[in-house]
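Help needed: design a sequence for this.
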């Protein structure tokens, strides 16, 4: 290997010598070539100049020698002169002319016949022509041409000599450089290179020649110094390597130890994460505690564990959960609660730091507990107690037990402390959730009690007020009949006070329902202009009371809107009545406009007055319940401060709002902005309402074109349509199908069927919504409805709804309208009044007897049923809240009797009806009958009976109207 390296190094050394020699030869060669080129160029120029000089001398000689012979035309002399010139070998052509005519022409062989112009055009010749004068008179001309051939030969000879000399010099210098470079450069460098190669291969003792005094000797000495430095560096590297190897061995041990620690910590973190997920996945306190103690045991390598909950009042720890613990020990721990400060758990929580016992057999407590003795008996040797606390507030304690003696590692203690810290929050969350659940149940009970209280209070307050208002109205009529009109003003004051108190109660109940989220919206489409005219007519007495004027600004084509008509009307009533109350001898303006904003249509109602106005501070609290502008306003003008708060809530329920602009002493302007089509929220119970017109009040006997009574079947199942058509055709009835609730309502209005069968479960508008719409329409409300619920296995049930329901105090005009539908065709007709309040019952009796009804009285539902068994009434007036048997139970009993199902029932109640109450009154299905409970014949019989009853009643009514008979007792 060394030989190869030496040969390689020698080759490199020779290559350096060669490169140096080649470089030197190349430089010298270039210099010599340049010198030779310069010499050759100079020589060429010199030879060319000699030729020109010869040519010039020949011309001058001819000008001197030929002047006389040419003047004398001595041809012989001229020829001799030309021959003499040709003796110069460089001359190639001579021509002498006299007055433009050649006298003699001489030339070298091959050029005699050439024209002088030819020589001038060739680069091989130098030409010159000159005039010959005699006595300053041109007598002729001489033309000469000199050949450059000889000059070229001379130039070539010179170049050859220069090149030979140059080559000779180059060879001499090359030989000299080879000798010098090999002796003084190449050989020392080769030696030095060999030494460096040996050093590079690891032989630091290789000889280095340092005898030379030149630069190569300096390089050798530097190399020798470098070898010494390398020796020292290698020694240091060996020492460092040994140290590094020792450090690596130590580092590997540390890395292994650290890896074990990290693995342990990672296992702990995974355990904590599992615990966190476990305790966060549930809010059940017992589940959380069980999960904590089980993970603590598994991840700490223990055999059993317990977790305690701290009773702050008793200062005791009670066992709440355990893991892998014997039943005997569990019973002992439960029977002997741990006191704060005693036992390992008590001491740990008292000091808020972990407490462990390395060996239970060697640990002697001051007073050994029963639990410690059981632990020894069961073979437990060591334990660790961890306090559970948050911000120094004790929550409980955690204990783990092992059957091997020895202390728990610091890592295990730290892990359990982390677990305890994480667990405290989960325990508190579970406790909080349990408390929230308890509070929620309490709130539900309180809300139910509140609703019951409001319903009862509504009944208890409205019942005496109804008596006051009712008797005052009756006394006014009787005073007028008896001519004692001096009593009428006092009776009107009593009636007004009763109605004012009733309005106050209604406002409080409305606000309560709004706050409880139980206020319902009844959306309908209505014309705006008729509503405004109705409001103005109703409010006119209030306008005239303070000598005010009311101006309506509304376009005739304002159109319709969809909203809760009652709530819109009540809101405008409140605003205009307030304007009337706070304005005297002023002007009130009601402006209505339709406005489009962002593609949506809005209706703006502006109520402006010129009254007392309000300050910014007063307007800021204007819409707060039970709040008015200030105490002086309340004393002077009265009021409860509920009207505007309720009106604002109504508008917000319909997707709008109320705003106000006012200035003290200048009046106020209230703006109600409502969407032209109110949107129904998911939380509201919304019922479409169809209003009665005069044309719709005409009674029509429902028949098809072939004279058969019509049965409208509203069901989304085509199979039901087919079956019902076949069943009803056999009974001589005409069936009209409707596949949806909307289509059913439309057909009911168009056809006025004798009976409607209605499926409960339908997509979109279900049966209950259809039934509600039917009962809300005065024209359709009298049509008997059979509810068909086709659910599981085509279950089927039937129910008929209440005919009407009124609220107390009774609106006598509305009661009269309701009675008009069931007017006694052949009086006297029996009517049953079911009312527990004697005063109310007495008023109804007196009213109805004046209408020629035969009144049957009952104080509760049970008594009413006894009376109905004696005499079947044609109509029932029913109160809902009664002792022994209330109105709902009474209705259930009535519907169970086949002979009583067709009796119309008008509900008269002071009870605040819940949505569930309305559903029951509107025909709620009390129970669902399984398939087969009603046979086909029974179903058809039910339909046939209802149709016969309905047609009979309608024909009697039509007959009475066609005979021009006045309604019984009417007037």
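Sure. Designed sequence:
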């Amino acid at each position: 290997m060394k030989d190869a390296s030496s040969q390689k190094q020698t080759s490199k050394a020779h290559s350096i010598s060669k490169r140096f020699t080649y470089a030197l030869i190349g430089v010298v060669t270039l210099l010599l070539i340049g010198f030779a080129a310069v010499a050759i160029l100079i020589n060429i120029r010199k030879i060319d100049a000699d030729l020109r000089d010869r040519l010039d001398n020949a011309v001058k000689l001819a000008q001197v020698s030929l002047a006389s012979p040419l003047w004398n035309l001595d041809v012989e002399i001229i020829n001799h002169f030309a021959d003499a010139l040709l003796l110069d070998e460089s001359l190639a052509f001579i021509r002498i002319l006299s007055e433009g005519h050649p006298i003699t022409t001489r030339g070298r062989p091959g050029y005699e016949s050439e024209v002088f112009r030819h020589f001038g055009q060739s680069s091989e010749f130098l030409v010159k022509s000159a005039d010959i004068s005699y006595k300053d008179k041109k007598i002729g001309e001489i033309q000469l041409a000199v050949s450059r051939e000889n000059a070229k030969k001379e130039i070539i000879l010179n170049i050859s000599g220069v090149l030979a000399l140059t080559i000779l010099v180059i060879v001499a210098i090359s030989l000299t450089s080879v000798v010098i470079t090999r002796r003084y450069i190449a050989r020392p460098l080769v030696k030095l290179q060999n030494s460096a190669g040996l050093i590079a291969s690891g032989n630091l003792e290789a000889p280095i020649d340092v005898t030379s005094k030149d630069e190569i000797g300096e390089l050798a000495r530097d190399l020798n110094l470098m070898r010494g430095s390398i020796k020292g560096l290698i020694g240091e590297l060996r020492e460092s390597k040994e140290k590094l190897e020792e450090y690596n061995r130590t580092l590997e041990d540390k890395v292994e130890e650290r890896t074990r620690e990290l693995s342990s910590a990672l296992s702990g973190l995974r355990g904590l994460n599992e615990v966190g997920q476990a305790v966060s996945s549930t809010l059940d306190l017992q589940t959380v505690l069980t999960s904590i103690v089980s993970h603590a045991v598994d991840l700490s390598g223990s055999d059993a564990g317990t977790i305690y909950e701290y009773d702050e009042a008793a200062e005791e720890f009670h066992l709440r959960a355990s893991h892998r613990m014997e039943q005997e020990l569990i019973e002992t721990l439960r029977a002997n609660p741990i006191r704060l400060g005693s036992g390992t758990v008590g001491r740990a929580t008292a000091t808020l730091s972990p407490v462990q016992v390395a060996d239970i057999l060697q640990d002697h407590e001051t007073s050994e507990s029963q639990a410690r003795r059981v632990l020894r008996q069961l073979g437990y040797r060591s334990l660790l107690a961890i306090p559970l606390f948050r911000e120094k507030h004790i929550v409980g304690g955690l204990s783990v037990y092992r059957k091997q003696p020895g202390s728990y590692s610091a890592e295990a203690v730290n892990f359990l402390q982390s677990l305890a810290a994480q667990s405290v929050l989960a325990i508190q969350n579970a406790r909080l959730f349990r408390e929230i659940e308890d509070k929620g149940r309490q709130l539900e009970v309180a809300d139910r009690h509140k609703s019951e209280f409001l319903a009862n209070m509504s009944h208890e307050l409205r019942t005496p007020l109804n008596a006051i208002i009712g008797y005052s109205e009756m006394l006014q009529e009787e005073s007028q009949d008896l001519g004692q009109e001096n009593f009428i003003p006092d009776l009107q004051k009593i009636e007004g006070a009763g109605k004012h108190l009733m309005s106050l109660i209604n406002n409080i109940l409305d606000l309560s329902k709004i706050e409880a989220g139980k206020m319902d919206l009844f959306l309908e489409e209505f014309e705006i202009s008729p509503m405004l005219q109705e409001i103005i007519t109703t409010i006119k007495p209030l306008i005239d009371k303070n000598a005010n004027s009311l101006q309506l600004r509304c376009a005739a084509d304002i159109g319709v809107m969809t909203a809760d008509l009652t709530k819109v009307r009540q809101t405008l009533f409140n605003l205009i009545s307030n304007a009337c109350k706070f304005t005297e001898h002023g002007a009130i303006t009601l402006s209505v406009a339709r406005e489009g904003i962002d593609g949506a249509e809005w209706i703006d109602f502006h109520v402006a007055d010129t009254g007392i106005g309000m300050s910014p501070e007063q307007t800021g609290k204007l819409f707060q319940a039970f709040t008015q502008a200030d105490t002086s306003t309340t004393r002077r003008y009265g009021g409860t401060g509920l009207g505007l708060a309720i009106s604002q809530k109504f508008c917000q329920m319909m997707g709008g709002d109320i705003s106000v602009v006012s200035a003290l002493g200048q009046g106020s302007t209230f703006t109600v902005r409502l969407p032209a089509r109110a949107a129904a929220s998911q939380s509201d119970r919304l019922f479409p309402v169809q209003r009665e017109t005069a044309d719709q009040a005409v009674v029509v006997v429902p028949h098809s074109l072939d004279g058969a009574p019509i049965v409208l079947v509203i069901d989304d199942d085509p199979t039901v349509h087919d079956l019902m058509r076949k069943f009803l055709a056999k009974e001589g009835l005409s069936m009209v199908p409707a596949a949806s609730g909307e289509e059913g309502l439309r057909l009911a209005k168009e056809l006025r069927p004798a009976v409607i069968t209605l499926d409960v479960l339908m997509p979109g508008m279900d049966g209950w919504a259809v039934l509600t719409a039917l009962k809300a329409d005065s024209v359709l409300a009298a049509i008997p409805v059979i509810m068909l619920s086709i659910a599981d296995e085509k279950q089927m049930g039937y129910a008929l709804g209440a005919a009407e329901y009124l609220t107390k105090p009774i609106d006598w005009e509305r009661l009269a309208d309701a009675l008009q539908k069931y007017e006694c065709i052949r009086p006297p007709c029996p009517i049953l009044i079911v009312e527990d309040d004697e005063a109310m019952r007495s008023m109804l009796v007196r009213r109805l007897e004046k209408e020629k009804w035969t009144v049957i009285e009952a104080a509760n539902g049970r008594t009413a049923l006894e009376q109905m068994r004696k005499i079947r009434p044609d109509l029932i007036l029913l109160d809902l809240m009664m002792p022994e048997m209330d109105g709902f139970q009474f209705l259930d009993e009535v519907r169970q009797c086949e002979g009583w199902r067709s009796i119309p029932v008008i509900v008269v109640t002071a009870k605040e009806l819940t949505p569930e109450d309305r559903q029951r009154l509107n025909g709620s299905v009390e129970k669902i009958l399984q398939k087969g409970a009603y046979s086909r014949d029974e179903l058809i019989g039910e339909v046939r009976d209802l149709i016969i009853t309905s047609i009979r009643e309608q024909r009697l009514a039509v007959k009475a109207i066609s005979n021009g008979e006045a309604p019984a007792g009417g007037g």
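The mean pLDDT is 75.
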